[in-house]
Amino acid sequence: MATKKSSDAWKEAKIKCRLNQADIQMAKELGMTPKSLIKNIPSSKQQWKAPVKIWVRDLYREKFGKVLKPNPASSTKLMKTDGKHEKPITSESRIDDEDLPF
Prior knowledge:
Layout: H1 2-17, H2 21-29, H3 34-39, H4 52-64, H5 72-75, E1 79-82, E2 85-88
Antiparallel strand pairs: 1-2
Helix pairs in contact: 2-4
C-alpha cells in the first residue's frame, strides 16, 4: 500500500514539476521527496528562483560532479521509414558541415 502511495506521489511530482525519469532518479539519489519538489515550484512572484528541473540538476552536479542523462534507449527508437522497411536513424546518415558545398 505504501509503495502505491509513493509511486502516485512521484507521478504527481513528475507532472507538476515537468521532470523526466532521469530528473526523478537524481532527486531520489539526493534524498528528496515528491512533496519537497512540489513545494519548491517557483510562483510567478519568485522569478529569481530556478525551475525544479534545473534546481535538481544543479544540486546533483554539485554533489556528484555529473548529471544523469535520459535513457538513450528511448532516443534510439526513432525510426526512419522508407516504404515497407524501417531502419534506425544513425549518425552516418547525417551530413557534416565540411561536406556542404556552401
